[in-house]
Specification:
about 110 residues; alpha+beta; 3 helices; PQQD; PqqD_sf
């Protein structure tokens, strides 16, 4: 993360129940989570201590952009450039679920 950034980081404990991510939020994988490619499955996976989550293509595409630099709006925009339609609400719901599981951290934009 950029040391000059003055935004705050939220995890599930800092996010009110039912609150989603905003367009200016900058999601990134939590420190204990890693995105990797599984040669056996020929798919991207999310590695969490004692857990492996096999991602579908759209989930992997979203998480590849969760680097703490891209805002949620920029992620949706980038995906929209790659594909014809990208439901912004579905991207936000996906990110919100991962924040609730503490697999993503969100920095306020």
């Amino acid at each position: 993360m950029d040391p000059t950034h003055t935004g705050t980081t939220r995890t599930a404990t800092g996010t009110p129940p039912g609150a989603g991510v905003s367009g200016s939020d900058r999601p990134r994988l939590a420190r204990h989570v890693r995105l990797a490619f599984c040669r056996t499955r020929q798919r991207k996976i999310l590695l969490h201590p004692e857990t492996v989550v096999v991602l579908n293509a759209s989930g992997a595409d979203i998480l590849e952009l969760c680097d703490g630099q891209h805002t949620v709006t920029e992620i949706v925009s980038e995906l929209g450039a790659r594909y014809q339609t990208v439901p912004e609400d579905e991207v936000r719901q996906f990110l919100t679920r991962l924040v609730a599981r503490r697999w993503l951290e969100v920095t306020d934009g």
